[in-house]
Amino acid sequence: MDRSLASLDGKTAIVTGSAGGIGKGIALGLAAFGANLVIADKDGDTAKATASEIEAMGVQALPLTTDVREFDQVKAMTQATLDRFGGVDILVNNVGGTFREDFVNLSERGWDALIRINLKSVFYCTKSVADEMIRQGTKGSIIQVTSIEAWRAAPGYAVYSACKAGLDNFTKTLALELGQHGIRVNSIAPDAIRTPGIAMGTTPEDEERARRYIPLRRIGTIEDLAGVAVFLASEMSAFITGTTIHVDGGNLAAGGWQLNFDGVYVTGV
Asked: Which residue segment(s) compose the domain that 199 sits in?
């Protein structure tokens, strides 16, 4: 095996929602392995700052103010990428969002908003970029950022978890449909990741809960996610498609099992 399989030199990646948080971490990871980046985010000013940070790493970056819930803006994003770099090799559908609400209190407007940000935006981006990959004969990699909530019940987040479960099937089905074109489609499912937008791991109590409940006894980092994204974007994963890599410290495997204070796994069922 050659180390060059991990290289992304000369590749172009679009990462949505990459001005900050998980998206930025993934973008920085791809850039560290040589990829040029398109920083597509609603926050244009922060996207520019992230692009400058990436360019300081020695690769090119294109910041684009893009609301991925609008198909016209997504198509403009793809065209701007083609104009600047000539093609697209990697797409990371990172944008998503949720809010807590018991289903009995959820409005139709809330339902539509969650579908739009978590599913419809992925359709827009994947459709626009995959069409271009096929047209150019690019053997690309499409990566969806899902969630552990796609594989377990999530009280208070019924629609969000349903969207993520739908995205899992979307990934598998697209892997079959796009495989004939050499395009791979995979997902990353995070849980318990410390990010600027989630108040996790900021107190000693958080760290103690991590030691109690997470099998790896720590809270995950954005770099943990970025490493998996680099793997799925590179030729290291050339024969992997239609699958999900869980970046959750073992939480999905634990299921209903939890560590007690004696370090022993117990369950209430």
From this structure: 3-266
